[in-house]
Write a structure and sequence with these properties.
heterodimer; A: 539 residues; alpha+beta; 5-stranded antiparallel β-sheet; B: 378 residues; mainly alpha; ABC transporter involved in vitamin B12 uptake, BtuC; two-stranded antiparallel sheet; 15 helices; globular
Chain lengths: 539, 378
């Protein structure tokens, strides 16, 4: 009789929750009444009570059932009320299973443990699975479906069927369908169902699907054949995705190289000087970002998402200013002696490194990612992080901007004239010393804003620049001097080549191979990929 | 004939320097071994080792000066040859450890046992013999330099480009030697040496002998370099340095001259490295660091490029300064070194020795010139 009344109450609750999807709205007392039913009668009654609890769809149910499965639920003999009991010395502390409120301490004799057998445990597991599959929170539904996909539990099929029916989010629905297919393969359903499941999984084309199918390729009969052929299809499509992934990583690395090298390309192109302190300009840009973020953190935390945008012009000004200072104080005395300039700028780089170390300390600085830089999304099998995407976009913007400055402005015209023929440009009335100074400032400023971008993906330490300087040289020398497109092609080629070598040769050996390749390449084309033609280059 | 070649190559200054080096090679070990420790002129052993290190660096600087000062090849990768020579010596010393290593394996060095290698890699064969190691000390850097130079000079890679690819070379080697599976001890390199040619490497006598040998090697290298630079070949080299195209148009095979001096220089650097390792007691991949090679260039610049003596003076001065600075004011060392780079290139382009020479020559020239009637300016 009592059993019937519970069932009716549960039905009523289920109806009421169906009307209002906010499932947590079941009243505490109602829920408690259903929980109490767990302690009445034998296992069959307990199972019915579990189902009744599940039917409420309440958020708290799965936690209660978990405790039940662990054997933590006890009945108080006095009023047949069910509690969670925790050992407190020789006595037990009772907790209300619904509200979590303490309900006093009792001795062992006053309570009785609700027995749990395997049948109950299975019922609980299925119940919790279907509960989470129907949870109002999309993230919980997704993880529940993924859990089924991993466990391949055939018992979850009915719950999944119901969940698929109710699901509104297409992405989660797809995961559920895949999870159902995985479960079907493990079940004893007829072969036709299994083949359909194989086809379903094969259609996903993911790495996970591939490993899932790999387990069934050895199975005798049509299921195994279907699995094998689906696995082959996935494998060939994965190869394409792998290549795409490598290209993507390569482009991303290439953009980093481009950012680091492009300023160097300008100064080298115009002045024929390799600026060894170039890496330190990148480092200064990164530290400017750090300083901007520190100020924002302490005085205006709301602006944090804009910190990079604020840091960009500042880094350009700081690094560019230091660049002009270096040019005016050191480099201009050394024109026509490129090798000496190389040594002097190396000295400058040591001084800058030590200065930054003295001001900020030697340890790495934490530069945060704004919210729009963190996270990732996927296209097919390609996982794309926002930070990489933004750096590629940023590198392209910087590159285009620099091209525009050089091709479309008067300053650019002068710079190109000096690059091509210094004496002639000077004879035409161009003040070459000023062009030198501002070009050096521009190159250093670009390095500075490269530092802003690199602060997002690299450790910000005084040695940051050292890590990029040799790579930047390689890019510039490979691409050829005095030609920004050469630098662009050089950076992208080296980036992509590096990422394609990595899986076969390992990261370090891949890099060594590239260095050797560049050394050999320079023998073949001593002036790089896109060499300037004419007399001007014979300094 | 060779003696004649060497003697012809000696002017008075070179004879003085040579004699001075020989005197140091004899007197310092004598002061270390023969004088009692409380004697005011006693040189403690750590000082002998420290000076031995300086002189090994001086030899590296000599080799850099030979190519940079006389042939205009700015190598930013000479540290690679130095380190390769060092590794060849280190491999010999490793195999001398024998069963005294931590794992007491008679054949395999400790790090190979640690990496669970079963047998010696082929390139470690022969290094238990000193003559073989000595041959490798010369051959490995020499061959690498020859092959590298053969390609580079034939393709007429010059100036900054050449500097960059020498840097790429040493950087590639740095990365390679960091790898454990290269078979050179990876990150930790080779260390924990016990003895050399049967003598305990820690003993005072061995250390003093190594010092004497190092200084002697510097003296010989100096004599050889002086002879080369004062010979007809040396004049052509200077021609290449100052006007490469013009020298080529005059009919000289520029690349062959460059290749010769480049290879010779690399061998010198390799020997310097081999002398350096037993005194320091360790060789690891950081010796390949491009920064080290650039530092070697600044020694030459400080002492005086194209003077040979300057290279020795510069290496010893800068390294003495480094020892003192890193001990007394460690955070200022990079400022000092960086400032030195800037100061020397801006204000002392001839270096210490070059400036003194110019001043001396000016003084000597001005004395007789004063008696002549000044010519009207053109």
């Amino acid at each position: 009789m009592r059993f019937l009344s519970i069932l009716i109450a549960a039905l009523w609750l289920a109806l009421s929750t169906a009307v209002s999807p906010a499932a947590a709205a079941v009243a505490d007392e109602d829920l408690k009444r259903l929980v109490d039913a767990l302690g009445v009668g034998g296992f069959s009654e307990a199972e019915a009570a579990i189902n009744a609890l599940v039917a409420t769809g309440d958020d708290r149910v799965s936690a209660i059932l978990d405790r039940f499965g662990e054997g933590d639920l006890y009945t108080r003999k006095a009023d047949k009320s069910v509690f969670i009991a925790e050992k407190a010395g020789s006595d037990f502390k009772l907790l209300d299973p619904v509200t979590g409120a303490e309900a006093g301490v009792v001795s062992k004799g006053e309570i009785e443990k609700i027995k749990v057998n395997n049948r109950i445990r299975r019922a609980i597991a299925a119940a919790v699975g279907s509960l989470t599959l129907r949870s109002p929170d999309a993230a919980i539904r997704r993880s529940a479906a993924e859990a089924v996909m991993k466990s391949k539990d055939a018992a979850a099929i009915p719950a999944l069927d119901a969940a698929i029916e109710a699901e509104t989010d297409p992405a989660i629905k797809q995961i559920m369908v895949a999870a159902r297919a995985a479960a079907v393969l493990e079940s004893d359903l007829p072969e036709a169902d299994k083949i359909a499941a194989v086809e379903m999984i094969g259609g996903l084309g993911t790495r996970d699907a591939m490993s899932m199918l790999a387990a069934y390729t050895a199975v005798e009969g049509p299921v195994g054949e279907a699995a094998a052929s689906a696995a082959r299809t996935i494998e060939s499509s994965l190869l394409v995705w792998d290549a795409a992934q490598n290209v993507w990583y390569g482009l991303s690395l290439g953009s980093v190289l481009l950012l680091a090298a492009i300023g160097l390309a300008i100064t080298f192109g115009v002045m024929g000087v390799i600026n060894m302190a170039h890496g330190e300009m990148v480092m200064i840009g990164a530290y400017t970002t750090f300083a901007v973020q520190e100020i924002i953190r302490t005085s205006a935390p709301g602006l944090f998402d804009y910190s990079l945008l604020i840091a960009l012009p500042l880094a350009f000004i700081v690094a560019g200013g230091i660049g002009i200072l270096i040019e005016r104080s050191v480099i201009r005395w050394l024109y026509g002696r490129p090798l000496e300039t190389l040594l002097a700028t190396w000295g400058v780089s040591l001084v800058l490194q030590q200065t930054v170390r003295s001001i900020f300390g030697a340890q790495n600085k934490e530069v945060g990612n704004p919210s729009w830089m963190s996270g990732s999304f996927t296209i097919g099998e390609l996982s794309i992080t926002w930070s990489r995407l933004w750096i590629i976009v940023f590198a392209m913007v910087v590159f285009a901007g620099l091209l525009a400055v050089l091709k479309r402005t008067y300053f650019g015209l002068q710079t190109r004239a000096v690059t091509q023929n210094r004496q002639m440009a000077s004879a035409m009335g161009i003040r070459t010393p000023w062009v030198d100074a501002f070009t050096f400032g521009l190159g250093s400023g670009i390095a500075g804003i490269a530092g802003v971008a690199l602060s997002q993906i690299d450790n910000v330490s005084p040695n940051l620049g050292q890590g990029y300087i040799i790579d930047s040289f390689m890019v510039v020398v490979f691409g050829g001097v005095g030609n920004l497109w050469g630098t662009f092609v050089g950076a992208m080629t080296l980036g992509v080549a590096n990422k394609f070598l990595e899986p076969y040769a390992g990261a370090v050996l891949g890099k060594i191979l590239l260095l050797v390749f560049i050394i050999l390449f320079i023998q073949k084309r001593p002036r790089g990929l896109f060499a300037l033609k004419g007399r001007a280059i014979e300094a | 004939m060779i003696t004649g070649f060497l003697l012809n190559g000696f002017d008075t200054r070179a004879r003085v320097v040579f004699a001075l080096l020989i005197a140091i090679a004899i007197l310092v070990p004598a002061a270390n071994l023969l004088l009692p420790p409380d004697h005011p002129l006693h040189v403690p052993t750590y000082m002998v080792t420290l000076m031995g290190k300086y002189f090994a660096y001086a030899m590296l600087a000599l080799s850099v000066d030979l190519v940079w000062g006389y042939c205009g090849i700015l190598s930013l990768g000479h540290g690679a040859f130095f380190a390769l020579g060092g590794y060849a010596m280190g491999m010999y010393l490793m195999r001398q450890i024998g069963t005294r290593g931590v794992y007491a394996d008679p054949i395999l060095p400790d790090f190979m046992v640690f990496l669970n290698w079963k047998e010696l890699p082929w390139f470690w064969y022969g290094f238990d013999q000193f003559w073989f190691a000595a041959l490798m000390i010369v051959l490995v850097p020499g061959t690498l330099a020859f092959v590298f130079g053969w390609f580079a000079f034939r393709s007429r890679v010059t100036g900054v480009y050449l500097s960059i690819i020498t840097q790429a070379l040493t950087y590639a080697l740095l990365l390679a030697f960091f790898r454990n599976d290269m078979g050179f001890g990876g990150n930790n390199g080779l260390t924990d040496f016990k003895d050399i040619l049967g003598y305990n490497i820690q003993a005072d006598g061995t250390r003093a002998t190594l010092f004497a040998l190092t200084v002697l090697a510097v003296a010989i290298a100096f004599a050889l370099a002086s002879a080369v630079t004062r010979s007809k070949l040396g004049k052509v080299l200077v021609g290449v340095r100052d006007a490469e195209s013009r020298t080529r148009f005059l009919g000289y095979r520029v690349e062959n001259y460059k290749l010769f001096v480049w290879t010779l220089s690399a061998v010198m650097a390799g020997i310097a490295g081999a002398l350096y390792v037993p005194q320091i007691g360790i060789i690891n991949p950081s010796e390949f660091d491009p920064a080290n090679s650039i530092e070697a260039v600044i020694w030459v610049a400080v002492g005086g490029r194209g003077t040979l003596v300057g290279a020795i003076v510069g290496a010893i001065t800068v390294n003495f300064g480094k020892t003192w600075f890193t001990g007394a004011l460690p955070e200022l060392w990079l400022f000092a070194l960086g400032g030195l780079f800037i100061f020397v290139t801006l204000f002392l382009p001839k270096g210490i020795v070059g400036t003194v020479q110019a001043w001396w020559a000016g003084k000597r020239a001005s004395a007789p010139a004063a008696t002549l009637k000044p010519e009207p300016a053109e």
